Each structure stands twice: as structure tokens, then as C-alpha cells.
């Protein structure tokens, strides 16, 4: 990239070098295609497109309308939904939009406890959400969802929404059980599938909409390799967003549209929607399906190799793209692991565990995922090499000279796999 602002250009080039020469295993990070990056810099970045296709407030919307309609139709087709809202700006914004579509202040919602692999926006007292709605966190037991606990909370509070989703959980959820409990208490069944949506798109994991869920949401920048935004898909009647519908489950698509705009945010980022539209087309390609399959295979090899080296894994396996190393029995914690891996340019992320005795910034779990490096087309034998790098860094975490030598190995390995 050539720009006239030398200081910014320098930072861009340094960041590109950092990404190229490192091994990226942080959950949530990935690489966009050249086409998706390019379209975000298109002329659509200039356009103010308030409201929705066919119902804009400003003139000159014939092409923005076609673009957004194309994104909506592609998303609906891929995920078998009645409607898709592609305007939400981020993960947190999309969840808040959905909550306001379904609930009034002080209504109850059940989400996975953050200490049991949930996300901040699913249940946490530190968020703005918790000042508006009554969140109750259901928990896990024996490394799986405690449905007895979930049902007990549902019968006690009669929530408006029951949320299925996670931030750090390596197994597939039982959506049918979630839906049964939601139906029992007349709650809306909602799934946050931000980490696994691409597997759903590739028909490798279950789609909650096929199991009586009313709506699902995903960010678009994680495993899907899209621009930074979000999509909310729903079942029901698609009405006119300019008119307030009755507050019924059947009218959920229109209620969501009105919650996104004018309820929670203003004009959409049309250049981002353009990138999402292109990425939705990529999802339908054979290349993307092969990528999703390769990521699952890589994640399983990742689990196998760590188990072979006598590491302890949460749930002892993975159904998706991530594993969680459990360090609770070790005399070192995540911060020490991160410090050693950072010195050899391997990036991982921390994770909380149920009843962890260590503080949140020095937890007992290390979360590792494969989508980013699979985008760079690492294969099974390459994953074994990555595990070897991590194991050696942990075992020599106090040896600065060894870590310097290991870093050179890592850089040589990473440079074999160029960025998209």
C-alpha cells in the first residue's frame, strides 16, 4: 500500500510484517481475502443510506438498495432464514439490538455464565446490558451445558429470551434441548453462533434455525473472514420496518429491523455491507467448503498432539475450531505461557474456567484456534509443528537464549505461509 502519510504507511507495513512472520492462534482473528478488503475501499464508503432497501430517507439509493438486497438474499439462502439484517455494526451491537427487539427494560434473559465460557454480552454484571435487562447465567457441569440448571432458571424467571452461545467452548451445543426449554416457558430461542457460523454455512455443524430457534446472530469477521460487522437472521413474517408491528414472535424480523434502526444505531456502513456481500458469495464456493473442512481436521490434530504430549484439554476433545488447554494443575498460568509464546511470535488468547482460583488476567486456560492459520493453508503436519513450537516454548519459558533461537525457527516456518 502506498499512501502519502509516511507515519501511517510505516505502521501499516510493520503490521503486515508482524502478521506475516507470526503464528496467529488468537480466537477471533482471521484474514480477509483481497476481494473483501478491496470492496471495503469502494465508492460505497461515501454513501449515506439511512433506513432499509426501498425505504431510504435520502436520494440516490438505487445501487445501495440493490447491494443490501443482494446481501440479504444471499444470507437467507445460505442459512435457510426468512430474513437477514446485515446492518448491525458489531457483535455487541447486534446482541444489544436483538435484546431491545425482544425485551423491555428489566425483562429477564438467560445466557451462559461468563465464567462458564459465555461472552460478556451473554451475561456479565460489568456491561451496560446488565443495567437494562435482568440477566441470569446458566452454568456447565462436567464440561457440558447444565440443562437442569437452565430449565430451573427458566421456570423461576420466565425469561423473554433464552440464549445459546459461547465464547470459549470446544463442543457442539444441543440446540434441540435449548428449544424445548424455551418453548416450555414461551421464550424466544436465540443463538449467538459467532464462532461457528462458517461451519453451519458449510453444513458441517448444526444450524439452530433447523431446531426451532427463532433467530441467530453472528459477527462477520471471525471464522468467516469477512469485514467487521454482524448479521441477525430470523424466522417469521417480514413486514414494513416503517410501521411498528405487534410484539409477537411471528413479527420478529420486523422488530429486529426496527431495533437496529432507528432503535440502536444510525446509518449503515455500505462499504462494509459490500464486503459482506462479496464474502457471502465466497461462502458458496468449493474453496470455502474445503477451507472449513481443513480447519476441522487441523483442530482435531491440534487436540491429538496436545493430548499426546500429556497436556490436559477442556472436554478432552473438540467438535469445532478451538481447543482449551487446562493449566489448573500446573505451577504456571496463562500469563507465563503468553509471555513465552509472545517472545517467539506465537499469539494465543486466555480463557476463564468454571470456579477458577486464579484471577481473570492470569487464568488457568489457554484458548487456541485454527481458522487464521488454516486460511494461510497450514495442513495436518504443519499443525504438529505448531504444537511442537508451543510445547518447547512452555518447557523453556525461563530460558531467554533458547526462546531467541526458537523464534528464528518460528519465523522461518511462518514465512512459508503467505497472507492472502
Number of helices: 15
Question: N- to C-terminal separation?
Answer: 14 Å
CATH class label of the largest domain: Alpha Beta
At the fourth level of CATH, the homologous superfamily of the largest domain is Type I PLP-dependent aspartate aminotransferase-like (Major domain)
Strand line-up across the major sheet: 4-12-11-10-9-5-6
Helical content stands at 40-55%
The structural class is alpha/beta
User: In what range is the share of β-strand residues?
Assistant: 5-15%
Please state the CA-atom Rg, rounded to the nearest Å: 22 Å
Label the CATH architecture of the largest domain. 3-Layer(aba) Sandwich
Structure description:
The protein has 420 residues and is α/β, with parallel strands linked by helices. It folds into 2 domains: 35-283, Type I PLP-dependent aspartate aminotransferase-like (Major domain) (Aspartate Aminotransferase, domain 2), CATH 3.40.640.10; 286-414, Aspartate Aminotransferase, domain 1, CATH 3.90.1150.10. It has helices at residues 6-21, 34-40, 62-79, 91-102, 129-132, 147-157, 175-184, 197-201, 252-264, 270-283, 286-308, 334-343, 371-375, 380-395, 400-414; strands at residues 23-24, 51-52, 55-56, 83-85, 108-112, 134-138, 140-141, 144-145, 161-165, 188-192, 215-219, 230-234, 322-326, 346-347, 349-351, 365-369. A 7-stranded mixed beta sheet has the order 4-12-11-10-9-5-6, with helices on both faces. Strands 13-16-15 form a 3-stranded antiparallel beta sheet, with helices on one face. It has a two-stranded parallel ribbon with strand order 1-14. β2 and β3 form a beta hairpin. The protein starts with 5 loop residues before the first helix and ends in a 6-residue tail after the last helix.
Amino acid at each position: 500500500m502506498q499512501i502519502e502519510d509516511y507515519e501511517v504507511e510505516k505502521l501499516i507495513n510493520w503490521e503486515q510484517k508482524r502478521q506475516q512472520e507470526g503464528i496467529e492462534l488468537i480466537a477471533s482473528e482471521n484474514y480477509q481475502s483481497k476481494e473483501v478488503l478491496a470492496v471495503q475501499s469502494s465508492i460505497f464508503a461515501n454513501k449515506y443510506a439511512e433506513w432499509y432497501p426501498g425505504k431510504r430517507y435520502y436520494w440516490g439509493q438505487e445501487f445501495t438498495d440493490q447491494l443490501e438486497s443482494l446481501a440479504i438474499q444471499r444470507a437467507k439462502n445460505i442459512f435457510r432464514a426468512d430474513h437477514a439484517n446485515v446492518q448491525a455494526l458489531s457483535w455487541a451491537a447486534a446482541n444489544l439490538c436483538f435484546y431491545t427487539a425482544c425485551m423491555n427494560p428489566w425483562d429477564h434473559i438467560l445466557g451462559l455464565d461468563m465464567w462458564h465460557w459465555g461472552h460478556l454480552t451473554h451475561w456479565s454484571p460489568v456491561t451496560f446490558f446488565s443495567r437494562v435487562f435482568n440477566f441470569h447465567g446458566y452454568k456447565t457441569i462436567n464440561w457440558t451445558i447444565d440443562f437442569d440448571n437452565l430449565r430451573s432458571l427458566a421456570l423461576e424467571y420466565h425469561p423473554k429470551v433464552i440464549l445459546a452461545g459461547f465464547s470459549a467452548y470446544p463442543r457442539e451445543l444441543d440446540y434441540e434441548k435449548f428449544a424445548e426449554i424455551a418453548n416450555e416457558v414461551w421464550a424466544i430461542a436465540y443463538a449467538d453462533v459467532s464462532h461457528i457460523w462458517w461451519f453451519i454455512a458449510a453444513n458441517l455443524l448444526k444450524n439452530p434455525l433447523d431446531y426451532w430457534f427463532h433467530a441467530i446472530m453472528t459477527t462477520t469477521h471471525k471464522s468467516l473472514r469477512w469485514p467487521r460487522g454482524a448479521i441477525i437472521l430470523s424466522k417469521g413474517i417480514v413486514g414494513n420496518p416503517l410501521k411498528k408491528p405487534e410484539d409477537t414472535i411471528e413479527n420478529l424480523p420486523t422488530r429486529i429491523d426496527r431495533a437496529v434502526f432507528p432503535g440502536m444505531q444510525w446509518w449503515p456502513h455500505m462499504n462494509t455491507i459490500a464486503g459482506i456481500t462479496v464474502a457471502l458469495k465466497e461462502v458458496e464456493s468449493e474453496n470455502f467448503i474445503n477451507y472449513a473442512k481443513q480447519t476441522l481436521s487441523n483442530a482435531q490434530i491440534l487436540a491429538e498432539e496436545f493430548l499426546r504430549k500429556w497436556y490436559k484439554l477442556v472436554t478432552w476433545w473438540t467438535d469445532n475450531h478451538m481447543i482449551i488447554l487446562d493449566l489448573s494443575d500446573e505451577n504456571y498460568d496463562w500469563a507465563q505461557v503468553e509471555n513465552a509464546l509472545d517472545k517467539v511470535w506465537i499469539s494465543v488468547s486466555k480463557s476463564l474456567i468454571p470456579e477458577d482460583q486464579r484471577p481473570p488476567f492470569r487464568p488457568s486456560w489457554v484458548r487456541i484456534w485454527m481458522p487464521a492459520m488454516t486460511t494461510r493453508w497450514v495442513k495436518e503436519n504443519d499443525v504438529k509443528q505448531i504444537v511442537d513450537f508451543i510445547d518447547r516454548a512452555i518447557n523453556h519459558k525461563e530460558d531467554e537464549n533458547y526462546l531467541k533461537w526458537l523464534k528464528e525457527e518460528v519465523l522461518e516456518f511462518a514465512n512459508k505461509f503467505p497472507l492472502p
